[in-house]
Amino acid sequence: MRPSVQEMIAQSRGKRNKKVIEKIIPIILFLIASVSVLTSIGIVLTLIFETITFFTRVPFFDFITGTTWLPFSNNEAQFGIWPLIIGTLKITVIAIIVAVPIGISAAIYLSEYASENVRRVVKPVLEVLAGVPTIVYGFFALTFVTPVLQAVFPEIKIFNAISPGIVVGIMIIPMIASLSEDAMSSVPKSIREGALAMGSTKFEVAWKITMPAALSGIVASVVLAVSRAIGETMIVSLAAGSTPRFDGDFTGSIQTMTAYIVQVSKGDAGYGTTIYYSIYAVGFTLFLFTMAMNILAGYVSKRFREEY
Amino acid sequence: MRYIEQQTVVKRMNGRLIANAIFKYIFLAATLLALLALVILLYRIVTQGAGYLSIDFLTNFASRFPDQAGIKAALVGSLWLMTVVAPTSIILGVGSAIYLEEYAKQNHITSFIRMNISNLAGVPSVVFGLLGLTIFVRAMALGNSILAAGFTMSLLILPVIIVASQEAIRAVPGELRDASYGMGATKWQTILKIILPAAIPGILTGSILALSRAIGETAPLIVIGVPVIIQFLPEGVLDTFTALPMQIYDWSSRPQQEFQAVAAAGIIVLMAVLLFMNSIAVIIRNKFDKRY
Predict the structure, then answer these.
(1) For chain B, how are helix, strand and coil distributed in percent, rounded to 5?
(2) Average pLDDT over every residue of A22-35
(3) pLDDT tens figures, A51-62
């Protein structure tokens, strides 16, 4: 005869190992969950320690105020970070000029004008743009966008800031479009309908009702996109060149923080050389820039969120 | 008291309607422009690379001569990389998600972990490369092996998998949990036999999308020091290797015009792998899309 349910419960309650499992599992899972925290700590400690080593050889003051980046010079290497920051900003500015109008326009179209069916097709297709590997974008910038630009403006060099800037912009369009669309879609229908009932056109609703209401989400999406543009690596290392420069020229070769790290990593800088440590100092600067952007995005979306 | 004068409204209406129509087409044009960029990108790559795509291209090693160059080492290397990244990142990601959704109490530690995960997602991949170089390549002395690169990539995509798994677990309705507890099941039994099976489609979809990101990432591999010219296949996870995006990067940064076509052919292979993975994700989502 099979044991009754009561007996089975009593039996299983007696099993010691079940209790042990129930106690051990949460501990194991907690340890697993702390890997992500350890990763962050690892990143910060790695960057700090190697950067400190770098600053024992290169004065901190020279690094943050210097306007000449000449690490490979034989006579006297110079490590002034500003040319790399300027290069990064050039790319970011162009990317934003390209991506913000297009991204937000696409978001308005999808959330205010497009039918449900159109949105259901277009949004995932736009997100395909976000899934394209950045190496593919870099190749596209180098072999398509640059030649096209050169055909129109002959003074543009093969390596320049404009072409990778545009392509980084294309890369972050889906991010802005998708996140802004989410923010605008979550504005309640009743507010829109109220405005429409008062005789507003759809454009007036989008411009004067939905956009202001979703502003925190839209701003946060733009800030996140800026962070992505700052940290973008492959497009700039393929198409922007490797000339760190401290000027306002967009048509010639530049260098960004990320591209410098790649350039050094590729060239086998000997372990322990000043150049080797310099990639950590540059990485740390880059990390601070993107971290500031990410925190700002989180703050904006939390602080200025409209509650309905 | 002033009322709205109908005449004024009617007089201004035309301009407002025209503005509405114009802006509608501006917004539509912006959307189409973004889609057009995608079409041009794909069209360019296919027309450039299709000529170089052949069986030889898939079975040859890299070469100095464009017409003999092949992608075999990179393709096999990327598959090897996935054998490390997939189990590592999925175990870590799903484990973290289960902890955060099912066990974690609402306290400072938990909210710190959550905040940390969202910040980690915003760290540039090249910085993860620096982490991998210091911890895995140097400190743990793994060299530029599959294991070192795999661990680095796993940490890179970890936030994506955690968030996707959290959403999948959260979507499992509370009634299922209550029913399971009501039958006398313990917490772990409920998680293992009720919640995870129900959440697996969502977890898998998110994981595959995260893995396809890992396949396309280049920057961390360069920083770790993964070589390009490799004339042999790896035999274990401690061997050195090369991967698809590394090979493409090398070809596209060469000055000879022919190598651009070779790079485009490599990109077609990479995109085919990604498309294959994405379609698996879509199939899983459609097949198991249960509504409770």
Answers:
(1) 75, 0, 20
(2) 92
(3) 999 999 999 999
Tell me how close the Cα of A46 comes to any Cα of chain B, in angstroms.
7
Q: Write down the number of H helices and E strands in chain A.
A: 15, 2
Q: Which of B34, B222, B274 sits opposite A102 (nearest CB)?
A: B34
CB-count burial class (<10 Å; 0-12, 13-18, 19+) for A23: exposed
Q: What is the DSSP string of A158-215?
A: SS-SHHHHHHHHHHHHHHHHHHHHHHHHTS-HHHHHHHHHTT--HHHIIIIIIHHHTH
Q: Is residue A244 within 8 Å of residue A263, measured between CB atoms?
A: no
* H or E stretch covering A78: strand A78-79
In this predicted structure, the answer to whether residue A6 has a pLDDT above a threshold of 90 is no
Min Cα separation B44/chain A (Å): 8
Q: pLDDT tens for residues A113-163?
A: 999 899 888 988 888 888 899 999 999 999 999 999 999 999 999 999 999
Q: Contact, A80 vs B164, CB < 8 A?
A: no
pTM (predicted TM-score): 0.91
Chain A residues closer than 8 Å to B219 by CB: 134, 233-234, 258, 262
Which residues make Cβ contacts (< 8 Å) with residue A155, sequence separation at least 6?
A251
Q: What is the CA radius of gyration of chain B?
A: 25
B107 alpha-carbon distance from chain centroid: 31
How close is the nearest chain B Cα to the Cα of A193, in Å? Answer: 16
Cβ-Cβ pairs closer than 8 A, A with B, add up to 251
Question: B34 vs A26: CB contact, 8 Å cut-off?
Answer: no
B119:A295 CB<8 A? yes
**CA distance linking residue B124 with residue B126, whole number of Å:** 5
Q: Which two tokens stand for residue B220?
A: 């961390």
